[in-house]
Write a structure and sequence with these properties.
Elements lengths: L23 H14 L4 H15 L5 H12 L5 H41 L6 H12 L1 H23 L1 H17 L4 H19 L12 H9 L3 H15 L8 H11 L5 H13 L7 H33 L3 H6 L1 H20 L1 H6 L4 H16 L4 H17 L7
Helix pairs in contact: 1-2, 1-4, 2-4, 3-4, 4-12, 4-13, 5-12, 5-17, 5-18, 6-15, 6-17, 7-8, 7-15, 8-15, 10-13, 12-13, 17-18
Length: about 400
């Protein structure tokens, strides 16, 4: 790591404030700034954190930062949020992880809850409904764009683990996201266990069995405990099972919010996903809109709190073990199976999202969004805002809007 004249030792866990690389005030300010301007999802968050921690401040070396990205990608949950928490831990210990993670998450949470109140109001004006319907129509294209961006790196890694199995895992993820709803998670886990078993067999080690509890059974148990327990259960699944990005969990969250608990209509859920894309900070904030629809402001805050708690716990109690975790062959083998299935699930989530559209003009907006993202390579935020603008114009012409 390059020495800096104004830097201090970065070893987390030291007891004296002056021995850390940054003060808590600096962590709050810098991570809060990223939380305010981090439009565009994980790629933007990673770029901003790299610029801060590696280029501007020299708190981490390039290699340390790359290792941090790799370690966070091995964990379930929102990877860019975990990277923000980890880098704050790296420069200010556990107190920094708590302060930096909160500063990164809270700006987006405030914005998305305010927008949720507007879009989920009992009788919003036509232009608001049109903007939501237009933005929601673009979400399926965003899912395809997100999944397609992960394919090249996964295909390169598959050269050493088996490309035929990689393709089969991707197809299993696509099919499960399109058809299985809450059972999607079991498919992801199953693909990981298959690859782990194959890998262990090659090394001459005993196989491994998986004991799984059906997601619907647990959801039903939570439902009996009241709406807040149900919100917490849905949010916990989002925080624990978002391998590869927030879109992996979209089919399961959609099934819970729309079909199981009936907190939202399909159109409102599309709006929630769109809001998660256009607000700063973590895309997983979508779950806050679901919580708001279920139980108002308290439900939204509860959903966000529960969804992000696993990320904090993983870093606070596991960050010092990251190097050993990354080097574990069983962990690597499991993710070599679950990873491509997660990519397939992201791609497959576009199918139920597209089927949720109810108006012909929304499919035209979807097609336009796909062209902007996949052909002209425009950004996600720009595309969704353009789709929202198109929806507003269409609504003002008197066209039918989703109910």
């Amino acid at each position: 790591m390059t020495a800096q004249p104004d830097r201090e030792d970065t070893t987390p866990g030291k007891s004296t404030k002056d021995e850390y690389a940054a003060s808590l005030g600096t962590v709050l300010r810098e991570w809060g700034r990223i939380g305010c301007i981090g439009f565009g999802g994980p790629p933007t968050h990673i770029a901003l954190l790299r610029k801060l921690c590696v280029q501007r401040r020299g708190w981490l070396s390039d290699q340390e930062f790359e290792d941090a990205i790799a370690a966070c990608n091995l964990l379930p949950g929102p990877a860019s949020t975990q990277l923000a928490i980890f880098t704050a831990w790296r420069v200010r210990g556990r107190a920094g992880a708590l302060a930096g993670g909160a500063a990164f998450i809270l700006p987006g949470l405030v914005v998305i809850l305010a927008l949720a109140a507007l879009f989920l109001a009992g009788s919003p004006p036509a232009w608001v409904r049109g903007a939501g319907a237009g933005a929601g129509a673009a979400v399926a294209a965003v899912a395809v764009h997100a999944g397609a961006g992960l394919v090249p790196a996964g295909w390169r890694r598959a050269a050493t683990t088996g490309r035929v199995r990689w393709v089969l895992y991707v197809l299993a993820g696509v099919a499960s996201a399109a058809l299985l709803g809450p059972w999607l998670v079991l498919v992801l886990l199953g693909c990981g266990m298959i690859e782990l078993t194959v890998n262990r067999a090659r090394r001459g080690e005993p196989g491994t069995a998986l004991l799984a509890v059906p997601a619907q059974s647990l959801a039903a148990a939570a439902a009996g405990a009241g709406v807040f327990a149900s919100v917490a259960w849905v949010a916990l699944k989002v925080g624990m099972l978002s391998y590869g990005g927030g879109f992996v969990i979209i089919p399961l969250m959609q099934d819970d919010a729309v079909n199981t608990y009936h907190w939202m209509t399909a159109g409102q859920f599309l709006n929630a996903v769109a809001l998660g894309q256009v607000t700063p900070g973590p895309v997983v904030q979508t779950v806050a809109v679901v919580g708001y629809a279920a139980a108002g402001l308290t439900g939204g805050i509860l959903a966000s709190l529960v969804a992000f708690t696993p990320s904090f716990l993983f870093i606070l109690f596991g960050a010092k073990h990251f190097d050993r975790f990354r080097g574990n062959p069983n962990v690597r083998a499991f993710l070599d199976g679950a990873g491509p299935a997660a990519v397939g699930a992201i791609l497959g989530s576009a199918i139920p999202l597209a089927l949720s559209l109810t108006q012909a003009w929304q499919y035209a907006v979807l097609a336009g969004a796909a062209i902007l993202l996949l052909v002209f390579r425009r950004g996600v935020v720009t595309t969704i805002l353009a789709a929202a603008g198109a929806g507003t114009v269409i609504a003002l012409t008197g066209a039918l809007l989703p109910s």
